[in-house]
């Protein structure tokens, strides 16, 4: 059994069918436990492959129409009380496997960082756009979001020929596009952009925590947690905090800033 377990660790799921065939009729509990483990792993692998295939449906349609550089575009940071809106655009080379891409909203910090590394190593191109709080002060968060999205597309070192954008139609770009509602669950390219934008913004807020340690930005990343609101009451806003539009409500008001 130990030798088989070593083979499983060394060769991975490709050897699981052979192990199942070899041990299927073995009455020993240890053998049957190994068979169950192999079957469970294979079922999970098949489930993920099916999900991954589904998440490339938009891209496959566009590739079949001759669009090769299809960019998924997404943003984070519309909802916080402080910090920038960050957008990312990602062009993938084809139906590559990116572990965890089908559950981007449920990933731990460690797994998100690992996936971010995979995306950076695999993508044809990655672009990032950031709009700082002063840019958000001058206009609505929606306009700031458009600015960040356009910056991300413009930052791509390879010109995209089609855009898949999470949930919005983006004005001011020349490429054809389609908004995909809930895109980070339906398109691998959009999901990859969501991961890049999230990691870039989180890392930026951690850097800002060293500059403004009293607010706890490393913990809440600028969102309106109880800890953050208490710090605002105690110290007042810093340059990272967003100011309301003229005639709007005060910083930290839940009606002005919503999670998203």
UniProtKB/TrEMBL annotation:
A divalent metal cation binds at residues 74-75, 166. Manganese or magnesium. Binds 1 divalent metal ion per monomer in the absence of substrate. May bind a second metal ion after substrate binding. The keyword Cytoplasm applies. Pfam families: RNase_HII. Keywords: Cytoplasm, Endonuclease, Hydrolase, Manganese, Metal-binding, Nuclease. It is found in: Cytoplasm. The keyword Metal-binding applies. Its cofactor is Mg(2+); Mn(2+). InterPro entries: RNase_HII, RNase_HII/HIII, RNase_HII/HIII_dom, RNaseH-like_sf, RNaseH_sf. Its main location: cytoplasm. Residues 68-257 form the RNase H type-2 domain. One of its GO terms (molecular function) is RNA-DNA hybrid ribonuclease activity. It catalyses: Endonucleolytic cleavage to 5'-phosphomonoester. Its EC number is 3.1.26.4. Endonuclease that specifically degrades the RNA of RNA-DNA hybrids. Belongs to the RNase HII family. This is Ribonuclease HII. It comes from Symbiobacterium terraclitae.
